[in-house]
Task: structure prediction
Amino acid sequence: QVQLVESGGGLVQAGGSLRLSCAASGRTFSSFAMGWFRQAPGKEREFVAGMPSSGLSTYYTDSVKGRFTISRDNAKNTVYLQMNSLKPEDTAVYYCAADPLLATLVKKDRADYWGQGTQVTVSS
Result:
């Protein structure tokens, strides 16, 4: 029912910014909680940010609080991750994900639907 395609990754210097986008197919987008995950080489996949279907609240892992912002535009079937003050340790492949339940994303690091990923590299 849902296909997700990420874009917006790239190479930036420490302290710079990027905005990731995740475009979803279908009219069911507004029924799903959305999240962003990342995976660095040799590390486990990590939850980064999440938002319920209402779009009225946000959740972040501690390491990105105050620097990253998740948002969604249901009219465009798109979720965004604005990343500011980037650090080399933010380097990873970033994935967007969708699930009926926000708790599945935030607490279980699982989702029904995944995008293909986009590379973010932060140089020092």
Observations:
- The chain has a mean pLDDT of 94.
- The chain is about 5% helix and 45% strand.
